[in-house]
Every structure is written in C-alpha cells, then in structure tokens.
Amino acid sequence: MAEANAHYSLHRTSEFAQLARRGEILVDRRPEPPAGVELLYARQNGGSLFDTITTTSAVPSHSSKTPSKTTSSVDIQFTITPAANSTSQGSAPSTTSIGASPSNSPLPRPFDTTLGSNFTTPTCPAFFKQFLGNTSFTDCLPLSLLLQNSNSFFQASHSLTSITQTLDATCQVNFPVCSSLMSTLANELRDDANCGQDYYLENPLVRQAWNGFVAYAPLYEAGCLKDSLGTFCYANAITNTTSPEDSYVYFLALGIPLPAGSWPTCSTCLQKTMAYFATAAANLTQPVSQTYVSAAQQIDQGCGPNFVNSNITPIQGSASSAISMIMDTVSTSRAMLLTAAVAVFLAI
User: Fold this and answer.
1) DSSP states of 324-348 as a string?
2) For residues 224-250, average pLDDT
3) Given the DSSP bridges, would you call strands 50-57 and 37-42 parallel, antiparallel or unpaired?
4) Alpha-carbon distance 198 to 203, whole Å?
5) In the predicted model, what is the mean pLDDT of residues 139-158?
6) What is the pLDDT of residue 136?
C-alpha cells in the first residue's frame, strides 16, 4: 500500500513538472463537495486507522444576489461515527448541538449565558434565578440589563431589523410598573439574604445587575428615542459600522466611561440622549453620575462648546428618587402613572 502511494505521488509530481514547463495550469473542474464533509480524525483507543467525523451546518441560502441578514440562531451539529471496534460498536451515531439553542421567545433575554459560580453565598445565584424566571421581570425586557449581559441581544444588534424588533418590544412595556419593579429588585439585591455580601465585595456580575436595575429609567428613555425618520437612535448607533463610537454613549448609564479618543457623531440623537443622562447624572445613586461630566466635556470638544450640558453637580439620592428625576423628561400622563406606582411601592 505504501509503495503504491509513493509511486502515485512521484507520478503526480512528474506530471505537474511537465505542465509547469509548458506553462499550463491544471484546473480542477469537478463540482464542489456537498455540505456534509468527511474529515479524518486520529485514532484513539484502538479502532481503524482513521475514524470518520461528518460535519453538517445550517448554511444560509445564496440563491439571491443580494445578501440578507437573518435573525435565526446558528446550529452546528457534529455526527460522530465510531470506529469499527470501539466501545460504542453497534450504537447509533451521537449528535451534539453547538451554538445558540432556540428559545420559546425570539426576543433577547438578560443573563442568557451561565451565571458561573463566583458567589460568596448560594442565596445570590438563587436570587438571580428567581427574578430571571419571573415573567413580570422578563416582560419588561430591560435595555439596561440587555446592553452588558445578554448574548442574544449582542447577536440581535448585528441586524437593524432584529434590534428594531427588540426595541419595539422594550418600549411598549408598562413603564411605571417596570420602573417600580426594577427599583424593588435593586433594593432586594443588596439585602444580605440575597446578594448583599457579593455586592459589597464588588462581585462584577452582581454590580452589573444592580447598575442595570438602577439605570432602567434613563436607558428606557434614551433607548426609545427616534430620529426624524422614525428610526430608533440606538438602532442607528449600534449598526453604524463607520462610527462604532455612537453606541458607546449608551454605556455611560451603566457607569462605563466613554473611551478616550472616542468621537460620537454630532447628531440630534446624541444631544437628546445626553439630555436624559444629564437628568439622571444629577443623582449620585445613578451610575451615570460617575461618567457623565467627562463624557460631556469630551463630546463638546468634538461637536463644539455647549453641544451638550456638561455642568452637572450630582447630589445624593436613592433608586426611587432617581425615577422621580427622570419623570421631568417624560410626558405628564406617564409621570402621573409613575408617581402612583412608586407611591404603591413605598406603601408596601
């Protein structure tokens, strides 16, 4: 067998050399192999010299000349055929799914990957699982918790259609009820019976959750802003590949500074977004109070003096009072509903 292979190799080498001298190119005109490709896999624990692994993947159709973006999850499967004398001889091939598994809802969810085990007490992950399994919470679809802690939201952000559908759902929730719920969860998270110890030890995941609860109102208002054409400002920002800095502004609300040297597009969307954040930044409880002023000064350097308000003096407040401050920037009817919701929460 080895001698035959060596003879074949020498024959092909000689043939290629002759073609090269004549200036000819050898072209393989055979059709492309099918989607299922057989690969060679090194022998393990006996078996034939090579076991066969067949890979199949969900490949989008290219029948149309115009590429289109898809919102479906990618599912890659590996079907492993055991060796003839392996321990699984006679059994059916095993299939393992790798990638995002389909969910009951096409909308993104926060904390949709593993929570890990970096917790001081078991009560903290139990608290996470409790509120993540609560439909009252999931129905709010909080942008403030999707931005930093959702793989499905990250995937949706690659498509203008997908991110618009997500924002439509986020902005159609009962804002007063969701605001009250986020305030309640922020307070409960810091309770020692839940995640209090991890919060004060500055567990990153716990702090991110608390920032998301507290920043719900300003990011709701900023995330639901639309431009003159009726497109969500955030959708334009996150899909703008020529100016990725446009999306950085939204992370200010979560206490994440604007990177040095970032120059967001000087637009009406930017001005209005920063106006909402300026209102929230006046409250020290809000994470944006730690990031707003420096970001505003940086934006004014790029867009001109007084493009946004950089004169903010934060004062101490609470999560519930932060919601009251945001009410000044929303409609009167919405503010009245929010006041009633907060009053009910405080009376409990």
Assistant:
1) HHHGGGS-HHHHHHHHHHHHHHHH-
2) 94
3) antiparallel
4) 5
5) 93
6) 94
Give the E-state strand segments of the chain in sequence order: 37-42, 50-57, 75-81, 94-99
188 neighbors 130 (Cβ within 8 angstroms): no
Terminal Cα-to-Cα distance of the chain (whole angstroms): 84
pTM of the model: 0.62
Say how far residue 346 (Cα) sits from the centre of its chain.
33
Do residues 257 and 270 make contact, with C-beta atoms less than 8 angstroms apart?
A: no
Q: How many helices (H) and strands (E) does the chain have?
A: 16, 4
Weakest mean pLDDT among 82-86, 114-118, 152-156, 302-306: 82-86
Q: Which of 238, 208, 209, 211 is nearest to 223 (CA)?
A: 238
Look at 114-118, 159-163, 266-270, 276-280 and tell me which has the smallest mean pLDDT: 114-118
Q: Are 196 and 190 in contact (CB under 8 A)?
A: yes
What are 266-272's contacts with CB under 8 Å, separation 24+?
A: 266/299, 266/302, 266/303, 266/304, 266/307, 267/227, 268/227, 268/228, 269/225, 269/227, 269/233, 269/236, 269/237, 270/246, 270/299, 270/303, 270/308, 271/307, 271/308, 272/222, 272/225, 272/233
Give the pair of three-digit tokens for residue 88: 């699984």
Structure tokens given for 149: 């802690």
Query: Which amino acid is it at 107?
Result: L
In eight-state DSSP terms, residue 65 is S
Residue with tokens 């200010």: 252
Tokens of 291: 């990031």
Q: In angstroms, rounded to a whole number, what is the distance separating the alpha carbons of residues 129 and 104?
A: 17
Q: Any idea which residue has 């497109």 for tokens? A: 231
Alpha-carbon span 245 to 311, nearest angstrom: 23
